[in-house]
């Protein structure tokens, strides 16, 4: 390999210090789009002489072109060293787990599918006037190392990973994975809540409140076990979009016994989106310090999201779901988001993964508009000390 001479225009620009020096030399701001351009040119080589746009590099770096490069969510930087996650406002975490699926597997490919479709997006939303690259620092930490065939070992891995990100002060966004991960993700958050409490707003067609399914904690069971934790009272669980022919009576029985809050699609359409969202935020926030949002993609009518394990006709329309999400996120103190049950093997042209991408991007934008991101200081409900034994013992 040929050595780099001292006169090379790229000498020293492989480090953050070198990049800063480059920006200073060229009098360029070190934020947003221009920062990405600087980094792309420094790390990806100056473009060939025939290229007139000198913002283009030889090797693809950053957002453009959308069809090239390594897929992270929204082309965000991949953070290999997770010890540095607290330097970012938001961290995307993939959870490729579908061992909790009871019928149609494939959600282990959900994080890959969502990241791939997110390449279609830019970080700017015209309607909201939000540019995620300019207004927050986003990273992708890659995937949790899950253990195929073992829900419990995977749950332990998921809880540890989410707890690490949450405790750092970065806002965790989890890409599932089947919905069994709802319990370990919330358990990870509860480990750093101290004496504080969390409410749950759960978008879904199914209640997911059975104790077991096929004798294990499956994707029909997360909220039974989550609400066993003292940090997540059952009365602060609000479920939006429930209905159809896939809501088991055993789960309904648990909801009634624990006094959870269930709004069907009919309830929501009859009372109106604003009233439904207001009720959800009030119930989830009553006596709690923050709210966790769990968005199962199958809450949306199956005609719009075929790529999921348990599609159910008659769900929310996409615009209804997105409006509900807006009203919830802008009016609640949100501590994390998960988007689950995207199953690319059943998808058509990636439209289900694209919907998941929209949910994630909209959530980040609403957090910016409502002033929740970027955080000015660590929220009082995030405790540095980890309490690993917050969940009920299992077998």
TrEMBL record:
One of its GO terms (molecular function) is agmatinase activity. Transmembrane segments: none annotated. The lineage of its organism: Bacteria, Bacillati, Cyanobacteriota, Cyanophyceae, Synechococcales. This is Agmatinase. PROSITE patterns: ARGINASE_1 (PS01053), ARGINASE_2 (PS51409). It comes from Candidatus Synechococcus spongiarum LMB bulk15N. Keywords: Hydrolase, Metal-binding. Belongs to the arginase family. Agmatinase subfamily. GO terms for biological process: putrescine biosynthetic process from arginine, via agmatine.
């Amino acid at each position: 390999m040929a050595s780099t001479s001292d006169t090379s225009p790229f000498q020293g620009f492989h480090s953050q210090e070198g990049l800063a020096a480059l920006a200073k030399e060229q009098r360029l701001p070190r934020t947003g789009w221009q920062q990405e351009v600087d980094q792309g040119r420094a790390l990806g080589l100056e473009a060939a002489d025939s290229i007139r746009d000198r913002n283009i590099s030889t090797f693809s770096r950053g957002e453009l072109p959308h069809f090239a490069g390594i897929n992270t969510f929204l082309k965000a930087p991949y953070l290999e060293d997770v010890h540095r996650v607290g330097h970012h406002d938001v961290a995307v975490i993939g959870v490729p787990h579908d061992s909790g699926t009871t019928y149609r597997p494939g959600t282990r490919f959900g994080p890959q599918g969502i990241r791939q479709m997110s390449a279609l997006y830019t970080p700017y939303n015209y309607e909201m006037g939000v540019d995620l690259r300019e207004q927050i620092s986003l990273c992708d930490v890659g995937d949790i190392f899950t253990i195929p065939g073992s829900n419990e070992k995977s749950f332990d891995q998921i809880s540890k990973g989410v707890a690490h990100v949450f405790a750092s002060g970065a806002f965790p966004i989890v890409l599932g994975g089947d919905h069994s991960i709802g319990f370990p993700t919330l358990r990870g958050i509860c480990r750093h809540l101290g004496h504080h409490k969390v409410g749950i707003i759960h978008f879904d067609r199914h209640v997911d409140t059975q104790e077991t399914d096929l004798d294990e904690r499956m994707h029909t069971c997360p909220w039974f076990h989550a609400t066993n934790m003292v940090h997540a009272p059952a009365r602060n669980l609000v479920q939006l979009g429930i209905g159809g022919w896939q809501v088991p009576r055993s789960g309904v029985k648990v909801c009634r016994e624990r006094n959870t809050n269930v709004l069907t699609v009919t309830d929501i359409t009859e009372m109106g989106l604003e009233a439904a969202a207001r009720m959800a935020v009030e119930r989830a926030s009553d006596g709690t310090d923050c709210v966790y949002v769990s968005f199962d993609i199958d809450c949306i009518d199956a005609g719009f999201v075929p790529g999921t394990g348990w599609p159910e006709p008659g769900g929310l329309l996409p615009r209804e779901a997105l409006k509900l999400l807006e009203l919830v996120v802008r009016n609640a103190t949100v501590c994390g988001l998960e988007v689950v049950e995207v199953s690319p093997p059943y998808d058509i042209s990636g439209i289900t993964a694209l919907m998941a991408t929209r949910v994630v991007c909209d959530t980040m934008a609403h957090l910016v508009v409502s002033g929740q991101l970027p955080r000015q200081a660590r929220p009082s409900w995030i405790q540095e000390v980890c309490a690993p034994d917050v969940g009920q013992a299992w077998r």
